[in-house]
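Example record

The entry below shows one chain as it appears in the dataset: sequence first, then structure tokens.
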Amino acid sequence: MDIEMLQIHANALQSSITAYHEFLICYKPTECIVYGFVEGNEDPMFYRGLIESHLPEGWELILIRAGSRDNVLAIFQDMDWIRFPSKQVCFFIDRDLSEFLEGELCSESNLYVTDNYSIENDIVTFGTLKRVIEEVLGVTGLNVIEIGKVEKIFKYNDSIFREAMAPVMGQILLWRRATKKVNLDNIQPKDFFTFVDAKIMLKKEYTSSDARVQHAAICLNDIVSPFHELAASEAEFRKKDGLKKYIRGKYLLWFFVQCALEIHTAIPNFCEKYSSPPKHRVGLGVGNCMPIIAPRARCPASLDHFVDCNYVEYIKEIKTAPHVSTGL
């Protein structure tokens, strides 16, 4: 193992230890609190509101950022489950490309794994978009026909975007299988796409899948895999429902924000009452989108069930247990 890899492991260990120590400091066994470990900085923006809506009055949720998926799993494996009730302390991770890499993740009752690539994937729906263009971008009063037009353009754009990103995801899968440490943030979907009257289009230089994959390789300072390997990887990605479930969530989030903004700009094409786009109620961009969009997303059924089976069940058990103080 080279020095760089040793440093990566050391940093991960330090991050997981820091998150665990934060938990120990804030853990109060007799208070009305449930706890969770999440991966990154933006995860609480998605999980907190959806989970707290399930909790009774007087109960608090504390979410601790572990820094990465591996750190969350490391803390989960090392947790002392004799000392801490498993239904009180839960863990939340993205599925990522585990379906293609290490197979199914462990199915422990207090470990939540997203249905799709990441939590961002659950945000990218027309229902969320409709709320965003109304509540954030100020587009109100659309009738049923106009809403239908907006929905049609969103679904068209969504399909085009996912299709275009499939070859790139096939190459990413090969890089990941080669255990390469690649920074996928360096691949920017905005390089590939443009919009005309709210309709997404590939830029001329990226209409071929080869050009998109080659550009992704340049962004990561890497090389494109041999043709037969790339074709097989993309075919596997598609066969396992990759277009619907495993496009990287951050790429989809960029698409969602840009699509909403473009629909806002082109709203006079869809609605006669607007001669120009209405003023934004809140500024929206990729940098600030998560705290704005996440509260407007619908809770996945799997997360509903998970919260009920863990936090809600724990609270019920605490309330009925003799000689247990919960601070109420």
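Notes for this example: The chain has a mean pLDDT of 91. Strands lie at 33-38, 60-65, 89-93, 111-113, 193-196, 199-202.
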